[in-house]
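Protocol step 4 of 5: obtain the predicted structure for the target chain.
Materials: sequence only (see below). No template structures provided, no constraints applied. The aim of this step is simply to have a reference model before the mutagenesis design in step 5. Sequence pasted as it appears in the construct record:
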Amino acid sequence: MNSRERWTVYPLLFLALGLAVRAVAIPAESLSAAKVNELEALRLTCREIIIQGDDGTVLVRMGRVEDAGGRIEIKDQLGRNAIAIGTRSDAHGGGVEYFDADGNAVGTSSADSQADGRSIR
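Step 4 output (structure tokens):
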């Protein structure tokens, strides 16, 4: 083996060994966070999705409600509730909740409210 071949083969050999050791030394379960600029997937399975503004304010939260199902909460630029769609822990049916400028619930629309399914309080 001449010098030129050594400069090609040995770095590739050490790279392969390093990648193999890393895969064994760092199990996949220990990776709890990743930062990426873009993610493209055909299917994503998770328990919660939170969308934050640049300042860390939660703008949208999609997740599960304990013992009740799922819920999407949309908030204003200050993080106050604006509208929520889904289930609540104290009710079995789904619905839409409306909030005022201070984030206080002012109305709901759900199939459980009335027989015809149209109820805004």
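Step 4 remarks: The first strand starts at residue 48 and ends at 52. Residues 64 and 70 are 4 Å apart (CA to CA).
Proceed to step 5.
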